[in-house]
Amino acid sequence: MNKEMNQPLRERLLMDSDWKFALGHASDIKRDFDYWKGKPFAKQAEGRGAIHPDFDDSDWREVCLPHDWAVELDFEHSSDNDIDYHGYKPIGRPNPATSIGWYRKPFSVSPDDKGKRLSIEFDGIFRDSQIWLNGYYLGRHESGYTSFRFDITDCVSFDGPNVLVVRADASQVEGWFYEGAGIYRHVWLVKTNPMHVAHWGTYVVSEVGDGFAELTLHTTIVNEDDLGNTGTIESAIYDADGHCVATVQSETQPIGAWKEQEFIQRVRVEQPRLWDLDSPHLYRLVTTVREGEAPTDVYETSFGVRSIHFDPDLGFFLNGRHVVIQGVCCHQDHAGVGAALPDRLQYYRIEKLKEFGVNAYRTSHHPPTPELLEACDRLGMLVMDEHRQVGVGEEIANQLRSLVRRDRNHPSIILWSIGNEEGGIQDTEAGARAAKTMKRIVHELDPTRLVSYGGNNGGQSAGINGVVDVRGWNYWKIGANLDEYHKEHPQTPMIGSEEASTLCTRGIYENDEQRGYVSSYDENFPGWGSGSEEWMNYYEKRPYLAGAFVWTGFDYRGEPLPYRWPCISSQFGIMDTCGFPKDNYYYYQSWWTDQTVLHLFPHWNWTGKEGQDIDVRCFSNCEEVELFLNGRSIGRKQMPHLGHLSWMVPYEPGVLLARGYRDGQEIASVTKETAGAPSELRLLPDRIAINADGEDVSCIAVQIVDDLGRVVPIADNEVVFTVSGPGVLIGVGNGNPSSHEPDKYIEPGAVWRRKAFNGLCMAIIQSTQQEGVLCITAESTGLAAAKVTIDTKACTLRPSVQQVEAANLIF
Ligand code: GAL
Predict the structure, then answer these.
(1) Which residues pair with 315 in a beta bridge?
(2) Whole-model pTM over 0.90
(3) Residue 80's pLDDT is what?
(4) 174 CA distance to ligand 1 centroid (A)?
(5) 170 pairs with which residues across the strands?
(6) Helix segments in 69-177, DSSP class H
(7) Residue 456 CA: which ligand 1 atom is closest?
(8) Which fold has domain 604-673?
(9) What is the pLDDT of residue 38?
(10) Residue 546 burial by CB count (10 A; 0-12/13-18/19+): exposed, middle or buried?
(11) Of all protein residues, whose CA lies closest to atom 6 belonging to ligand 1?
(12) Catalytic residue positions?
């Protein structure tokens, strides 16, 4: 506390609630709230229309952030519109009526805040946003993926109401996949004293020794005041149990008026608890800034102590231990919510990936949401953190700087990627020069990590590939002899920045172009891709490859491959858009984890195919598997390493049973039974107690089951959801790549519903700020309904809220 004023030294307040939203228009001035006529850039606070603080937005819709208006739009099939990339949501230049979004938020600050520095931080807006406060133009930010801030001290009103206005223009695309639209990440109001830790102003570097770690703490203090001053910083390191394990105090240094000063401190931590995949221990650096004796700021930085190393012959090492990169690439959207993920969904997704042995995540192809990195830090997931585009113009170079400055304290990050498949320049001398500049920018800000790039240009070693530290291969199959390459570049570590691109639809076992489904037998992939077994075998034989990132962990909206309409999403995922496993999930789980895995597929509901051969397959890490149909042995086989087993079995309804053996002993068994008609619904929430913070969510999986409780693998019944108590539905999904049903029902009083797809669908429910018990009911015509209750409980502050008080901390 600042004792005189009884005020916290620093506040970082979430600004996610009470926004008003309306679609504007990219070509019709009236429908764009007189944006042009209001001369938004001519004179401060004279702009008219929605920019003006007095504008009447009473007929705009109330929304909470994160918000993605693209996911709310109907799907549209238009052949000349190129909206397939966006999953057939009418976003982009040809859709002026649905590509501009306006947001307005009233808020107030206290007269007691006079004398403080105030800023607004945006974690990410898609895209090209212009921002006004009380009619003052604050500025423009084009990237849809980088985080940015504005100092609002000079235009905020301390005594009256304030109105923050954002116009987001998603007419232009940045990628070739679904990108969402609007303020799809958090917004924060930050209050500090004039002398404070600068924005992203700390950088902790750790060097691990034998039984100790040497930390170098770089801390930038800024003095935003007309008077020069002197400053001292005290740095304290806390372990995850709250024990202070080291402290260090700086010399007092002069900090001129409106100047910055970097402090560099070294401190030793004895017997450090290393950040690792199974024990992702995080330390907190608490930095206290003082003017004389008086504290002016307290700032927290989460970091980890660990060592990383890429060896050109042996691959990757974490804390001195060889770790094969078992990675996935992911885009950022999810079923039901599009690009606007509540924080908990980031954790849900990382947990799901870890379940089948993933240990690394590539943030393809853009800077991620900060909470995704928090989830990776906390759950133990390595990250290749990717910049959107190769380039060196000021705008792009600044995006790169902001990415590294924002993210460099995350222990999960092991590599920076400067871009992906820049076909126009990757082979050229100019591409090499750009990559060199980008590498320099990265290393100036973070000398501790190497730089990579996703190149899809085969054995090309000139251009961008010749510059980056770690050679990233997008697809070994693209005309290259990697062994030769390795021989010719013995100093270059190599990694599969993208592999597989296998296409499967969950629960489908033959291609059906009309309905947009592909077989889950892992037989479909584009020319550059390969089946899971093929690439896994290739990599395993080449220990100089550090491992690879599979394209992709989850299905994602947009880039509908291999089929366009009616498909609206891709089918590359090892899981579907909801996180329901496809069969390949168990292939990877067999070879990427130590768990005993025994998975049989396909399902055993083939009415009409009696007597016909069905290809029954098994993914497992058992040494041998024996298959039985209705009690009769169909054969016992040895499981090939990194392979699968297969039996042709004439169909008859009943029970398929597999028994798995190791050292001749049965260690696992699994059945696939012919399910009867759909009879009832079953609800399986991923969490039955959530925080009553208006943000936390539970993902409720819905199964359609027969009267013996067996999932009906071909059921597509429509399920209607109702909620009572302190919770709201925020999205529904089913993983069907061709479903044109809404993910959200935004009209007041609408009935939330979703069809099952191959027996499953999902509803995502969010808490309100009230404690209590919420109840979600699922109903479907002719089936027994199901109900589940979820406790919503008062919680401590969410992890990323930094509202710390000096008095409670140190010294
Ligand atoms: C890669 C590309 C990805 C995705 C993928 C589909 O070449 O980097 O973004 O398009 O192909 O296979």
Answers:
(1) 311
(2) yes
(3) 67
(4) 14
(5) none
(6) none
(7) 7
(8) Immunoglobulin-like (2.60.40)
(9) 67
(10) buried
(11) 501
(12) 421, 498
Q: Which two tokens stand for residue 75?
A: 């799907």
Q: Whose CA is nearest to atom 12 of ligand 1?
A: 501
Cis upstream peptide for 272 (omega within 30°):
no
The answer to whether 773 and 725 have CB atoms below 8 angstroms apart is yes
Check pocket membership of 456 for ligand 1, CB cut-off 6 A: yes
Q: What is the DSSP string of 382-400?
A: EEEEE-S----SHHHHHHH
CA of 674 to the centre of ligand 1 (A): 38
Looking at residue 47, what is its pLDDT? 79
676: which 2 tokens?
């009867």
CB burial of residue 514 (10 Å; 0-12, 13-18, 19+): exposed
DSSP 428: S
Residue 634: both structure tokens together: 């169909």
Beta bridge partners of 327: 360, 549
Domain limits, CATH 3.20.20.80, in the chain: 323-592
Q: Determine contact, residues 161/108, Cβ cutoff 8 Å.
A: yes
Decide: 502 in ligand 1 pocket, CB within 6 A.
no
User: What amino acid occupies position 513?
Assistant: E
Burial (CB count within 10 angstroms: exposed 0-12, middle 13-18, buried 19+), residue 637: middle
Three-class SS of residue 125? coil
CA-based nearest residue to 283, from 192, 160, 409:
409
The CATH architecture to which 323-592 belongs is Alpha-Beta Barrel (3.20)
- Give the whole-angstrom CA distance, residue 458 versus residue 463: 12
- Neighbouring CB atoms inside 10 A of 128's CB total 18
Rounded Cα–Cα distance for residues 811 and 236 (Å):
9
| 714 token code pair | 């071909």
And the tokens for 570?
Answer: 């891709």
Three-state DSSP state, 740: coil
Of 232, 329, 323, 227, residue with least CA distance to 276: 323
SS3 sequence of 784-807: ECEEEEEEEECCCCCCCCCCCCHH
Tokens (6 digits) for 509: 């076992």
Q: Given this structure, which CATH class describes domain 680-793?
A: mainly beta
Q: For residue 754, give the nearest of 727, 788, 731, 787 by alpha carbon.
A: 731
Identify the segments of the chain with pLDDT beneath 50.
Answer: 1-3, 797, 799-811
Is residue 442 within 8 A of residue 418, CB to CB? The reply is: yes
Cis peptide before 566 (omega within 30 of 0): yes
Residue in this structure with the two tokens 């190599």, named with its chain if needed: 494
Q: Cβ(298)–Cβ(1) under 8 Å?
A: no
Distance of CA 805 to the CA centre of its chain: 30
- In this prediction, residue 82 carries a pLDDT of 78
CATH architecture of 10-192: Sandwich (2.60)
Considering only CA atoms, give the Rg of the chain. Answer: 27
Ligand 1 neighbourhood includes 571 CB (under 6 angstroms): no
* Secondary structure class of 157 (helix, strand, coil): coil
Return phi, psi of residue 578, to 5°. Answer: -90, -15
Residues of the chain with CATH 2.60.40.10: 195-303, 604-673, 680-793
3-state secondary structure 330-374: CCCCECCCECCCCHHHHHHHHHHHHHCCCCEEECCCCCCCHHHHH
Residue with tokens 């005189």: 4
| H, E, C per residue of 573-637 | CCECCCCCECCHHHHHHHHHCCCCCEEEECCCCCCCCCCCEEEEEEEECCCEEEEEECCEEEEEE
Q: Helix, strand or coil for residue 349?
A: helix
In CATH, 195-303 is 3.40.640.10: no
Q: From ligand 1's centre to the CA of 433, what distance in Å?
A: 24
User: What is the end-to-end Cα distance of the chain in Å, rounded?
Assistant: 13
Query: SS3 for 726?
Result: coil
